[in-house]
Write a structure and sequence with these properties.
- By secondary structure, this protein is of the alpha/beta class.
- Helices cover 38% and strands 24% of the residues.
- A 6-stranded mixed sheet has the order 6-7-8-3-9-10, with helices on both faces. A 6-stranded mixed sheet has the order 16-17-18-13-19-20, sandwiched between helices.
- The longest helix has 18 residues, at 195-212.
- 45% of the residues are buried.
C-alpha cells in the first residue's frame, strides 16, 4: 500500500499459466501475482510444479509448451508491461539477471567450477551493466561484502570448491543481486544447508530485500521457512494452485485438505523407553578419528600432518533406544557414523555388544551383520542396475549363503511387506528397478535392505533430509514402528532438531569434532546449556 492506501499494481501478474511436456499438462491454469517489495512463498512437495512454474517465468524450461500470461511491470513509468511468455529471446536476455534474477538450490552444481567466484559475478556486471573489467571486479567485491562473506577481497579469487556450503550460497546470492533486480526467484535456497546456516541465509535475504526493495518469490517445502520469511503463501499440489493468502491466515485457518496435510506433517514423537537392565549395544570411550593431510614446504617431504575429525567422543547406544547425533556440516557426525560402522580406522574404545571393532575382516563379519546402515539419499545408495530382489537380498548371500533361491525370495517378500511395499500394490515388485519408485519408496527399499539380515543396530545417516515433509513423516513413523516391533537400536545422524525430538532418547551435540553437550533429549532440547546448542534449538523453533 502507498500513502493514499491505494493498492500498488503488481510487479508480476500471472494468469492461467499452463505448462505441458510431450502433450501432458503438468501445471494447470495457475494464477498469482507479486507486488513490488512483496515476499511470496510457493509451497508444495516434489513434483507439485512449483520449480517449473518459476523457471517458466523466464523461459528456462526446455522442450515445454507454455501458455497463459505472465506480465512484468515496466521498469520506467509510462512504458508498457512486458509479456514474458511472448517476449523474444533478445528481450529475455535483457530481463534475466537485470530485472529478474534466480538463486538455485545447489550452488555447487549451479556455479562454474572452472572460474573463480569473482569472475562469475563480474561477468554478470559486464554483460548487464556494461561495466569495464576493473569496475566489474570491484563490483564483485562489493557484492560479496554485502552478503557478509568474510575477507571479500580475498574470497573473490576463490573457486567454488574452496568455499563452504554457506559461503557458496552467499556467493550465488551476490551474483543474483549484483544488478539489483526487481524480482528474485529463490528456488529452495536453504535446503542443502544446515539449520544454523539456513537461518543466516534467510536473515541475509530478508535484510537485502529491505535494502533494495525487491520482490521475492521463494520456492520451498520448508513451512518453518515460510512462517519466518514470507508475507503471502501459495500452495501447489500436482500442478494446481489449491490455496493462497496471507501467511498467518493460511497457517491458522487452512481451507484445503492438502494445506492442512502439509501443516500437520511436522515430525511427531512416538517412542517407547529403551530396555532397562541390559548393557549398551554400542559403547565408545575416547573415540578419536584423524585423517592424514599434507604439510606445506620441506617438512612435508618427510612427514604428514593430521586433521582430527572426531576428538575424544564418549557415548552409549541403549538397547531398543536411539542415540541422536546432531550438528552442522563439518562437525564430525558423519565421521563418527563411519567409525561406528567399522569403515575407517579409529583410536580409543568402540565396542558392539561387548566386542571391539578390530582390523581383521573375518572377525568383524559377525558384527557387521549386527550393525547395518541407511544412507541419506536412496537414489544414489541403491544400484540402478540391480532389481529390488537383488538389492534387498544381497546381504543374505554374505551372511546366510546356505539359503536357496526360494528361501531368499520368501525373506525378501517378508521384509518388503514389513516396510510397506507389497506385490499387490506394485505388480512385479521384485523385478523392478529403483528409478521406478518415488523418493519415499526408495528409502523404504534401503531400510528393507538393512533389515534383511536381522540387525540389532541401524546407523541412520540423515535418513529423511532428502525427502518432502509428508514423506519424511511417513518414514519416521515406519522407523518408530520397526523399533517397537523389532527392539532395534538406532544411531541417528542428522542436522534436523525436529527429527531428533521425534526419534531420540539420548542426544550428542557435535561441533568441530568435539562433543559439546550430551544427555537425554528432554535435557538437551528443552534446557540446552551450551551456547551452540541453544542456537541450534532456536533456529529450529
Amino acid at each position: 500500500m502507498n500513502e493514499q492506501n491505494i493498492p500498488l499494481p503488481p510487479l508480476l501478474d500471472v494468469k492461467d499459466l499452463r505448462i505441458s511436456f510431450g502433450g501432458k499438462e503438468v501445471v494447470h491454469g495457475v494464477d498469482f501475482s507479486i507486488a513490488p517489495g512483496e515476499k511470496v512463498a510457493l509451497v508444495g512437495e516434489s513434483g507439485s510444479g512449483k520449480t517449473v512454474t518459476a523457471l517458466s517465468l523466464v523461459r528456462l524450461v526446455h522442450n515445454a509448451h507454455i501458455s497463459g500470461s505472465a506480465r512484468l511491470a515496466a521498469a520506467q513509468a509510462g512504458e508498457a508491461p512486458v509479456e514474458l511468455l511472448q517476449a523474444s529471446e533478445r528481450q529475455l536476455l535483457g530481463i534475466r539477471g537485470r530485472d529478474i534474477a534466480m538463486i538455485f538450490q545447489e550452488p555447487m552444481t549451479a556455479l562454474n567450477p572452472l572460474y573463480s567466484i569473482g569472475d562469475q559475478i563480474a561477468e554478470v556486471l559486464e554483460l548487464k551493466q556494461g561495466l569495464t573489467a576493473r569496475q566489474a571486479w570491484e563490483g564483485a567485491i562489493e557484492a560479496l561484502a554485502a552478503t557478509g562473506i568474510p575477507e571479500p577481497a580475498r574470497r573473490v579469487s576463490a573457486f567454488p570448491h574452496q568455499l563452504s556450503g554457506g559461503q557458496r550460497q552467499r556467493a550465488m546470492i551476490a551474483m543474483a543481486l549484483a544488478c539489483r533486480p526487481r524480482l528474485l526467484l529463490a528456488d529452495e535456497p536453504t535446503t542443502a544447508l544446515d539449520v544454523t546456516l539456513r537461518q543466516q541465509i534467510l536473515d541475509l535475504l530478508a535484510d537485502l530485500q529491505r535494502q533494495t526493495g525487491m520482490a521475492v518469490l521463494l520456492i520451498t517445502h520448508d513451512l518453518n521457512l515460510v512462517r519466518r520469511f514470507a508475507d503471502r503463501v501459495a500452495v501447489m499440489e500436482r500442478g494446481y494452485l489449491v490455496e493462497q493468502g496471507a501467511v498467518a491466515t493460511v497457517f491458522e485457518q487452512p481451507q484445503h485438505a492438502y494445506t492442512r496435510k502439509l501443516i500437520e506433517s511436522r515430525p511427531a514423537r512416538d517412542v517407547q523407553a529403551p530396555r532397562a537392565g541390559e548393557p549398551p549395544l554400542m559403547e565408545a570411550d575416547g573415540l578419536r578419528v584423524g585423517y592424514p593431510v599434507p604439510i606445506a614446504g620441506m617438512k612435508g617431504w618427510f612427514r604428514r600432518g593430521e586433521f582430527v575429525a572426531v576428538q575424544g567422543a564418549q557415548f552409549q547406544v541403549p538397547p531398543g533406544g536411539t542415540l541422536g547425533v546432531v550438528g552442522e556440516s563439518g562437525s564430525g557426525k558423519s565421521t563418527l557414523a563411519l567409525a561406528a560402522l567399522g569403515l575407517i580406522p579409529h583410536k580409543g574404545k568402540l565396542a558392539v555388544v561387548g566386542t571391539n571393532w578390530g582390523p581383521q575382516a573375518a572377525a568383524n563379519r559377525a558384527i557387521r551383520r549386527l550393525v547395518q546402515v541407511v544412507f541419506q539419499d536412496p537414489f544414489s545408495s541403491l544400484s540402478p542396475r540391480m532389481t529390488v530382489e537383488e538389492i534387498v537380498g544381497e546381504g543374505l548371500l554374505v551372511h546366510e549363503p546356505a539359503l536357496d533361491i526360494r528361501q531368499r525370495r520368501e525373506r525378501v517378500y517378508r521384509v518388503l511387506e514389513e516396510v510397506g511395499l507389497s506385490e499387490a500394490e506394485f505388480p512385479g515388485l521384485l523385478s523392478r528397478y529403483p528409478h521406478e519408485f518415488s523418493g519415499g519408496q526408495r528409502q523404504r527399499l534401503a531400510i528393507a535392505r538393512a533389515l534383511i539380515v536381522e540387525p540389532q543396530l541401524l546407523v541412520l545417516d540423515e535418513p529423511t533430509s532428502a525427502l518432502d515433509v509428508t514423506i519424511q513423516q511417513q518414514v519416521l513413523k515406519l522407523l518408530q514402528r520397526l523399533q517397537r516391533e523389532r527392539g532395534l537400536s538406532y544411531l541417528l545422524i542428522t542436522h534436523d532438531v525436529d527429527v531428533i525430538w521425534a526419534m531420540a532418547h539420548e542426544v550428542l551435540v557435535m561441533k568441530d569434532g568435539h562433543v559439546l553437550e550430551s544427555g537425554t533429549v528432554e535435557e538437551v532440547l528443552h534446557n540446552p546449556r551450551n551456547a551452540y546448542t541453544q542456537t541450534l534449538v532456536a533456529a529450529a523453533s
